[in-house]
Amino acid sequence: MLKSFLIALCLLETLMAADLPSKKYLNLNAVKTMVAGAEAEARRQNVSVTICIMDENGALLFLERGDGVSVNTLEWAQKKARHAALYGSPSKDAADTVKAGNTAALAFPNFFPGQGGLPIKVDGQTLGAIAASGAKSEVDEAIAQAGIDALLKK
Predict the structure, then answer these.
(1) How many domains does the chain have?
(2) 130 burial class (0-12, 13-18, 19+ CB within 10 angstroms)?
(3) Is residue 36 in some structural domain?
(4) pLDDT of 70 strictly over 80
């Protein structure tokens, strides 16, 4: 009788654990894959940029300043990535919001109106963001997109 009870209890615990949601996240391998993709696109575009990757909370996972890139791109790349991670939308959306005349949005926390930061989304969930800074805005965004594309191809 006790043995049957213990078996039933173990099965119940297994079922309860199975109901827990699983959460995807950006591990080191994912970060390295995105960096390689972004760096390859920067080489293809013949530009040197700062690349930044953040988790979904806007915490820094990776930051690399390319050769000869202005030191201020370290801040800009982080601001672009943090915006994309926390708002779940490209930092270009923030730039478009300001261009449309909604300057009040500049008061939003971590709102940054500069193109080049993209959210990293898998199955509708924002896992973080990647950004580039140091080239033309559309090139920065293309470099970030190449990083995401490299991740999603795996």
Answers:
(1) 1
(2) buried
(3) yes
(4) yes
Beta strands in the chain (DSSP E): 50-55, 60-65, 117-122, 125-133
Q: Is residue 138 part of a domain?
A: yes
Say if CB 130 and CB 120 are below 8 A apart: yes
Please state the pTM of the whole predicted model: 0.86
* Residue 7: inside a domain: no
Residue 25 CA from chain centroid, whole number:
10
Name the β-bridge partners of 117. 131
Fill in the amino acid letter for 40: A
Q: Is the dihedral of CA 110, 93, 118, 42 positive or negative?
A: negative
Domain assignment of residue 4, yes or no: no
| Helices and strands of the chain, counted as H and E runs | 5, 4
pLDDT at 18: 64
Exposed e or buried b for every residue in 76-86, given b needs 16+ CB within 10 A? bbbbbbbbbbb
